[in-house]
Amino acid sequence: DETGDTFEANARIKALAYAAAIPGLVIAEDSGLEIDALGGAPGVRSARFLSPTATYPERFAAIFERLRGVPDARRTARFVCALTVAEAGRVRFEARGVVDGRIAHAAAGTGG
Q1: Confidence (pTM)
Q2: Active-site pick, 5, 30, 72, 100
Q3: 36 assigned to active site
Q4: pLDDT tens for residues 63-107?
Q5: CA atoms of 91 and 111, how far apart (whole Å)
Q6: What contacts 24+ positions apart, CB below 8 Å, involve 13-22?
Q7: Closest by alpha carbon to 80, among 2, 26, 17, 11?
Q8: pLDDT tens digits, one per residue of 17-66
Q9: Are 66 and 49 a contacting pair, CB within 8 Å?
């Protein structure tokens, strides 16, 4: 279960759990979207935003509704990915990557 309050904590939880169960190096990640105008939401709850069974279109619609009237300059956001490498129940390496941007006014592309 992803019970951490940060992407790093969730990646670490997953990596250590798997590293305790199988031999060799294990790589786990946690990632999501942080929207400044929403106080950082959906954040670490990105995959469960609204509900665990909500679809991408449902999540997008809720985000767009919450951002209605927010000017472009305040639609700043970032996609965050935290990665943990573990072995034998020990963390060997951790990294965090961030891509900054802005939330568009409509969804584009496919697959989330």
Answers
A1: 0.89
A2: 30
A3: no
A4: 999 999 999 999 999 999 999 999 998 999 999 999 999 999 988
A5: 32
A6: 14/84, 15/84, 15/85, 15/86, 15/91, 16/84, 16/86, 16/89, 16/91, 18/86, 19/86, 19/87, 19/88, 19/89, 19/90, 20/89
A7: 11
A8: 999 999 999 999 999 999 999 999 999 999 999 999 999 889 999 999 99
A9: no
